[in-house]
Structure formats: C-alpha cells, structure tokens
Design goal:
504 residues, alpha/beta, Alkaline Phosphatase, subunit A, 2 domains, 6-stranded mixed β-sheet, two-stranded antiparallel sheet, 8% strand
Length: 504
C-alpha cells in the first residue's frame, strides 16, 4: 500500500477510535465531568479494575476495527475490485469521475473530514469547549469562604473519641422507598434507612434524604478529599503536582492531620490498590495514615494474587479484616481514626459475593441491598465491642452511582426530576441537633461535622469550605444555591491553585 494510503487508513482509524472510545467511556461511567477525565489522565492508573480494560477490548475494539474496515473498503473499492480500463478513445464523464474517485487526494480529504467530525463530536460530548471557556474565569468563592484550622480555635474534649469512618461506594439515599422520599417502590436499603432513622442523618427533605452531589466532589478520591478536607478536588490548567504524582494537595489539611496532632493514630483500609486515583499519597501525606489495601492483604497472606476479584477483595473480606485490625488497634492507649472504603457497589453491575441474595430484579439492586445488610451487621459488631462507648461511627456514600446503563434501563422507575443524593449517618455522636431536616449540604460539610461529632468544638463552626451541620450556620449551598456553587467550582481558582496544589 502506498504511503499516502497508509496515512488515510491511520486517520480513519484514529477518528473512529475517538468516537467509539468516547461513547464507551460515557456508557460505562455516566456523565463524567471533563475535569474528572483530566484528573485520571494526570495520575497513575495503578489498581484499575481489569474488567474495565477487558470490557473496552470486548465492546469498543471490535467496533473500531469493523467501522474502520467498512469505511476503508468503501474508499478503496477501486483497489479491491479491478475495473477494466476505459479506452482513451472512449473517455467520458463516467471514466473521469472514476479517475477523480481513485485520487489519493480525495481519499485524504474524506479522511480529514471524518477526523474533523470525530473531534467536533468528542468536544461536544465531553463539553471541553465549555470547560475551557469557564476555567478561564477566576472564581473568588473558595478564597472568600475557606477557613483553615489556623484561623479558628479547635478544642478537643478531655476524653478523646475514636472515629470509624466508612465510605460506601456509590451509596445513595435514592435507593430508599418512595414512602421515605427515596425513588423506588421497594426499599433497597432497609438496614441503612433504619440506621439513619435511629441515629443522626442529615436530609434534604423532611424525611429520609442526603447530601447534594456537587461539582469536583463526585468521584471517589474527590469525595474522600472533600469529606475529609472540606475542599473540592480541582485541577490546575497549567500543570501541577499531580503530573509528577510526588505530592497530593500539599497545601491542604484534613481530619487525619488535625487528629494526628492530638495523638490519634490514623488508618485506611480499602479493598483495592490504594495507589489508584492518588488515594495512597493523599492519606499518607495528610495524617500519616497506615494503609491496608490489596497489596497488604497479599503480603500478610490473607489472599493470593490469583484470588483477586473485581477491584481486589470483596466487602465481606473487608469487614472481616477490619474486625481483626480494630480489635488490635483498640488495645492501644492512643485514640484512633479508622477509615474504610467499600467497593462491591462499584459499577459496572457491582460484585456479587457469596453472602448476597438474589431477591431483586437486577444484579445491581441485589448488590446494593447486600451492601446495606453487610454494613449494618458490621455496625452491630462494633456496638458489641468494649471500645464502642468511646467511638463515633460515620457512614457516608462517596458519590451517586456512576452506572448509567442501570439508570437508563430502569429510568421509568424513577422520576426524571428526582434529586439523587448521597447517604449519610452518624452513630454515637458526642453532640446532637434537631436541625437535621430540609438541609442543603454537600460532602464539604462532612469535614467540620465529623470533627464536631467527636465532641470537638470549632470556633465559628466553619472549617475548609464546610459548615458544622450540628450548628445553625448556613452551608455554602444554603447561602448561594446548588447551581451557583457548581458554576463557581467549575471555574479556575487562583487561590486554590496557589494555596493547595503547588509545592510551597
């Protein structure tokens, strides 16, 4: 094949790959923000669930090959099917058209047009133009509302309270029944709603509800940062430390750091590789968390590499390992902060372990119900332990579900205007409040609220961009509204870049 024809084929291949890959990405991950895509391109993908790679190879790659082949067949049909040459004496319009058609230049022009179409399509799908336009604006929202621990007095109680913080992957209040202000006819999470009703749970309605899923807090590491540091996870548009991956928000401070200064030991246990998404660096650099992940489970002989499932090990094992670790940790004299992240409810379809029951229509619903049951049993176990008296348990979803196929297929079950929110519950809090209903709040507010639940007083009841929900202070969302805050968080914040991202 001539060099020019090779170029034509490569352009077509790239064009088709762009279109199909973008479609695959959004079909499997939902309405991703462009900033989330950029973030994951900037950090190592160590620990990614292999099933996503296999899924891409299975679903997208064949389409790319087939579509490219079909277009090439159409363009190069004159090379495949030999056409008898017309005699020079019998040249006509038809033969002239054939000569033009056979022109490599025309093929190249067609390939370039296809490439332009693919680029335009991907820009529209990812909203990159809107992203570029909006990030050129500088927002003052973070600068004007951020409160650091250096600005306020933080007072700990004489007897320090332990903290067990459970991040539940994709756990929404949406899964409750309509009777409770959820979106389903049947309550998929009866145990979690029971915990919320018996303890403290903040709601956006006058019944069961949750927190708003706002910009730059709506994927796992972003949610973990926002709930523990009161900050959105933003990306500098002119390069930042994420690229080298040596530091993670060096200017930020979080729960772990505040507790560590007061003699707490910090721990993080997750069922996948902690390196994925920068989680390892974030927690090690902010609070010196002792990390317990898939690699540690293998090193300790809890499992072998061959026994890896889904993202690593399932939640059934996560809770068993947590019980063992908490039993040992609780014997120490120092207070502890034990943070966990579940994984079974991660898209696509979640992971069905041996304790899950097939009581609902879809696998994902069964996994959700199983997650509710397992965390409830874990809480019951904690409550039976001696250390429970001095321990507060916080359970929060990290973000709303990213499984678009599930929502698209079952969308008739859910009102299209339904406000999907993230689950939250605080058990054995040292403080209480009657102001838990009709609150407009986000992951940012869990930072000071969690500290307050340990009996810690915060001067002004504000920390990071969050507000202590046990107080009567208005949150950012209550002051400005969800739409305004989302728009401002999409914009560049030179204060955020200079204060939190870049090395000091």
């Amino acid at each position: 094949m001539k060099k020019n024809n090779v170029i034509v084929v490569l352009i077509i291949l790239i064009s088709i790959a762009i279109i199909i890959s973008i479609n695959w990405l959004y079909n499997n991950f939902g309405n991703l923000s462009f900033e989330e895509i950029v973030f994951h391109l900037k950090v190592p993908l160590d620990g990614t669930n292999d099933s996503f790679i296999f899924n891409y190879l299975k679903e997208a790659l064949p389409k790319i090959i087939i579509c490219t082949a079909l277009i090439c067949v159409i363009l190069f049909v004159d090379k495949i099917i030999k056409i008898k040459k017309e005699k020079h004496s019998k040249r006509n319009i038809y033969s002239d058209l054939k000569l033009i058609y056979k022109s490599t230049r025309l093929k190249l022009l067609i390939a370039i047009i296809i490439l332009i179409i693919s680029v335009i399509y991907s820009c529209q799908k990812t909203e990159i133009i809107s992203y570029i336009r909006i990030v050129t604006d500088n927002s003052k929202l973070i600068e004007e509302n951020y409160v650091s621990s250096e600005q306020v007095k933080i007072t700990f109680p004489e007897e320090k309270q332990n903290l067990i913080y459970i991040f539940m992957e994709s756990m929404e209040s949406t899964y409750a029944s309509k009777e409770l202000e959820g979106a389903f006819e049947e309550n998929l999470i009866p145990e979690l709603t029971n915990l919320a009703q018996q303890n403290i749970s903040f709601s956006h309605t006058n019944k069961f509800g949750g927190m708003q899923n706002i910009q730059n807090t709506n994927w796992t590491i972003a949610a973990m940062v926002s709930q523990t540091a009161g900050l959105p996870l933003k990306i500098g548009i002119d390069g930042n430390a994420y690229g080298e991956y040596s530091t993670f928000l060096p200017g930020a401070e979080n729960i772990g750091e505040i507790l560590e200064k007061q003699g707490y030991n910090n721990y993080l246990m997750i069922g996948s590789e902690a390196a994925f998404g920068g989680r390892k660096n974030y927690f090690e650099q902010h609070g010196n968390y002792n990390i317990w992940d898939l690699d540690v489970a293998i090193e300790k002989g809890k499992m072998t590499e061959e026994e890896k499932v889904f993202w690593g090990y399932d939640d059934k094992n996560l809770y068993e390992y947590a019980k063992e670790e908490l039993t040992d940790i609780s014997k120490k004299d120092e207070p502890f902060n034990f943070t966990m992240l579940t994984v079974d409810t991660h898209h696509v379809d979640g992971y069905v372990c041996e304790v899950c029951e097939g009581i609902h229509e879809t696998q994902y619903e069964n996994v959700i119900s199983c997650a509710s049951k397992q965390v409830y049993e874990f809480v019951e176990w904690i409550q039976e332990q001696e250390f429970y008296e001095n321990t507060t348990i916080v359970i929060c979803g990290d973000h709303i579900s990213m499984q678009p196929e599930y929502w698209w297929e079952d969308i008739k079950k859910i009102d299209s205007n339904y406000n999907r929110t993230v689950y939250n519950c605080i058990i054995n809090s040292k403080v209480s409040t009657t102001n838990t209903k009709n609150r407009l709040f986000s992951a940012l507010d869990m930072y000071p609220t969690t500290l307050a639940s340990l009996g810690i007083t915060i001067e002004g009841d504000k920390l990071g961009l969050g507000v202590n929900l046990f107080s009567d202070q208005k949150t950012l969302l209550e002051q400005y509204g969800v739409e305004y805050v989302n728009n401002e968080l999409r914009k560049t914040s030179s204060f955020y870049n200079n204060r939190f991202i870049y090395e000091k």
